[in-house]
Amino acid sequence: MMNKSVLSKTGLALAVVLFVSFIIVVNENLRSFRVDLTEDKLYTLSEGTQNILSGLQEPITLRLYYAERVAQALPAVKSYGQRVQELLREYQRASGGMIRLKIIDPVPYSNDEHRADQYGLQSIPIEGEEDPLYFGLAGTNLLNGLEIIRFFQPEKEDTLEYDLTRLIFQLSDVQRKNIGVLSSLSLDGEQYDPLKGEVISDAGSKPWPVMDQLRMMFDVSMLPDDIRRIPTSLDVLMVIHPKSLTDSTLYAIDQYVLSGGKLITFVDPFAEVDVPEKDPENPMAALTAQRGSNMPELFNAWGFERDGQFVVADRKFARKVDFGARTGNEPIDYVLWLGLNDGSLNMSEKITSRLKRINVATSGFFKQLDGATTQMTPLVSSSDEAMLVDKRVVQFRNDPVGLLTRYEAGTKQYPLAVRVTGDVKTAFPDGAKNNMGDLQKMPDHLDMANEPIDIIAVADVDMIDDQFWVQVQDFYGQDLAFNTSNNLDFVYNAIEDLTGTDGLISVRSRAGFSRPFILVNEIEREAERRYRATERELEQRLQDTEQKIARMQVQRSGTGEQILTAEQQKEINEARLLAERTEAELRTVKGNLRQDLDALEAVVKFVNIGVVPILVGILALITGWLRLRKRTHGRFNVNKTGS
Amino acid sequence: MNIRNIWFIMKREFNGYFATPVAYVFIIIFLLLAGFSTFYVGNLFERGEADLYPFFSMHPWLYILLIPAISMRLWAEERKSGSIELLMTLPVSVFEAVIGKFLAAWAFTGLALLLNFPLWVTVNVLGNPDNGVIFTGFIGSLLMAGGFLAIGASISSITKNQVIAFVISLIVSLIFVLAGFGIVLDFFSSWAPQTLVNVISSFSFLTHFDAISKGVIDLRDILYFVALIAIWLFANALIINVRKAD
C-alpha cells in the first residue's frame, strides 16, 4: 500500500514536470501554426505584403527594440509585444532571407540603448519601473536608408501590418512613382520665394498631412498653377481644387490626358477648407468669395459634368456634428458631412472594394452627358435617400438644424467620385491662347486620345483635409495619429491602381473602424426624422399664435382704449393657452425621441437575460412534475401488488 | 482504456445531472449572471458595437465562481455517500471513470454556454458582427471551462467535504487566471529571471483565452488547454487510486 502511494506521488511529480516542459517547448517552438477565422483575415499576411516581400532584391535589416522586462507591468503592451514579434517573424519567413530581424533588449546605459536613441525611437517612463520602455523598430537598407516606427501603440493594432509593410516598401528598391500636384490651395504650407529669399505665407504654417503622407510613398513635385506643359515623366497628375485655371493650363492637362497621362482631380462646388481671407473693409467679400472649383471645358470633352449649383445632402450617411449653441450643444445629424460606408463604395472596383469608410463635406456630384463616348463608373456614391441642396444655402447661412428639419428624402443615388474611361477628342482643337493672345497649338498636338483615357474625379476637395481622415492625440509629447476614415487610402489606392501597380492596395484598411449596431442607428434616424417633422409643425403653430397675440396687443394700443373688450380678452387668453400647450407638446416630442430606442433596449435585455432562464425554469418544473407523478404511480402499483 | 466505458459513464453522469433540480438551478444562475454582466457591466447595448466582447470578457470571472460549484460534487459526493465503492465495482477502470465524469461535466457546461445563443442572434440582428471571432470566442470559452473543470474535479477527489472542494478549487482557479496579471508578474519579476516570468505568464488562462477569442485558433493555445486538462485528470485518477487503497 505504501509502495502504491509513493509510486503515485512520483508519477504525479513526473507528470507535472512533463507538463511544464511541454508547455515551455510548445510555446517556444510552435510558432505560427494557426487558423485565422476573422472575416477580414486580420492575422494573415495579405497578398500585397507577400508580393512586396517576395520582390525584395536587396536585404533589409529590421531592429526591434523591445524591453520585455519593463513591458511586464503593462499586460496590453506585453501581449502586443508578442504579436509584433510574431508578425515580424512571419515577414522574415516570407521574405526568403531578404529581411534580417534582430530583436534587441536595450539595457540602460548600453550601446543598444544609445543606438535606439540615435534612431529616434521613443522611450516611455513606466510608473513603478526604473527603466524606461522601448518598443519601436528601426529598419535600414544597404543604402543607409532609415525608416522607423517610433513606438508600437497597442491601439494601432488595426494598421500594424500596413505600417510594417509600408516601412519595408519605403526601404525597398522599388522604383517610386512620380506624382505631380497642381493646386490652388497652398498644400505645402509655407511657400518659399526664391527671389526674396523668404517665406511668403504665414510663418509656421505646415504642409498638409496628406502631402507628408504622399511623400512617404511617392516622389511628389508641386506644379505651378499656370503651367503650360505637363512633364511626361509624371506617372500621375493630381489636380486639386482647380480655381480659374487659364486656358493654356487646361490645354496642357487636356494634352497630357490625351497622350495617356493618368489624372486624379478633386473639384468641389463648395470647398470648406478654402477659407477666404477676412477683409475688414469689406466683410461681404468673405461671404461671396469663390470657393468652388471645376474644369467644365475638360469634363465636357470627356463626357461628364460636375453640377455647379447643388451639393449633396444625405440623411442616411449624415455624421453627427456638434455645432455648439446652434444645435443646443448636442451633436446632430449634419446632412452635408457624410461618412459613407456600406452600399456607397463600389465593391467591384479595386480602389474602393476594401475600403470601409469615406468622409466628405458638402460634396458635389457628377452627371454623365448625353451621347458621351466615355464610360463613367461611380466609385463612391450617396445613398438613395439623398437630396440636393442649393449651395448658396450653405454659403450664406449654414443652418444644420434647418437642413435636417426641411429634409425630404429623394430616390436617387448621386455619384460623388467616378472613374471615367474611353476614347475622347481634345477640348482645345485650336490650341490655347499664348501670352500674346493668339491661339497656339503645341508642336505635338493631339486631336484624339492615343489610347482610352483613364481618369478619376472626386466632387469633394475637403476629403483630403486632415480633419476628415485623421485624429491626432498626444502620446508622451509625440503626435499619435489615428485614421478616422479611409480617405487617404482612397487616394493611395487610386494612384496605385491608375499606375497599374498593385502596391499596398490589399494591405490597406483590412480592419474596419467599427461594426456599429446598424439597426439602432436606423431607429435613431427615424425617430429624429419624426421629431423634426413634428417640431417644424409645432413651431409654426407657436409662431402663428405668438404673432396673433402681438397683433391683438398692437390693435389694442392702436385704438387707444385701455380696457379690452371681454371678447378680445378671451381671444388673447385662448391664444396664450394654445401657445403654452404647444410648448408642452414640443417638450413631450423631444422626450419621446428616445422612446423607440429605449423600447428596443428593454426588449433586447429581456430576451437575452430573461427568456432562456424562464424557459429552463418551466422545463425544470415540467420534468419535476412528471418525475413526481411517475414515482407516485410507481408506489401505487407497488402497494397494489403488495396487498 | 475503453471508449465505450467512458461513454457509458459519461451518459450516466450527464443524465444524473438532470435528475435533481440542481442542474436547472445552475443553468439559470449561469445564464442570469452572464446576461446581467454582459449588459450591465460590459454595457453591450450602450457600446453600440456588434461583437460579443462584453460577454466573453466576463467568462473567466464567471467560471471562477460557477465551475467549482459543478466540480465540487464530482468526487466528494461519491466519497461521502460511499457510492464511490459502487462505482469501483463496475467493470470500468479509474481512468475511464475520471474521463467519463469530466466529459459529462464539460458537456453540461457546454450546454449552459450554448444556451446563451440569444446574444449571438441579437448582435446579428442589430448589426453585422464578425461571426468568425464569435465562433472562436465560444471555442476559447469552452476550452477554458474544461481547464477549470479538470482542476475542480481533481481537487474534489481529495476531500469528502464539498464546501472545502469548492473553496480550494476557487483559489486554485484564481491563481491560474491571475498568473497573467501585471501585479502578479511584477511580484515575480522583482526576483525571478525573465524566462521564469514568461513561463508563469504563459500558464495563465487569460493569456490563452484572450488569444483565441480574438479570432485566431493557435495550436499553442489549444495544446495548452488540452495538456492542462490531461495533467489534472491524471492527478485526479492517481488520487482516486491511492485513496481507494486507503
Automatic annotation (TrEMBL), chain B:
One of the record's GO molecular function terms: ABC-type transporter activity
Topological category with respect to the lipid bilayer: Multi-pass membrane protein
InterPro entries to which the protein is assigned, alphabetical: ABC-2_transporter_component, ABC2_TM
Major site of localization recorded for this protein: membrane
Annotated protein name in UniProt: Gliding motility protein GldF
Entry keywords, A to Z: Cell membrane, Membrane, Transmembrane, Transmembrane helix
Gene Ontology CC entries for this record: plasma membrane
Segments crossing the lipid bilayer: 21-40, 60-76, 97-121, 133-151, 163-185, 221-240
Domain ABC-2 type transporter transmembrane: 58-236
Annotated source species: Methylophaga frappieri (strain ATCC BAA-2434 / DSM 25690 / JAM7)
Pfam families tied to this protein: ABC2_membrane_3
Location of this chain's protein in the cell: Cell membrane
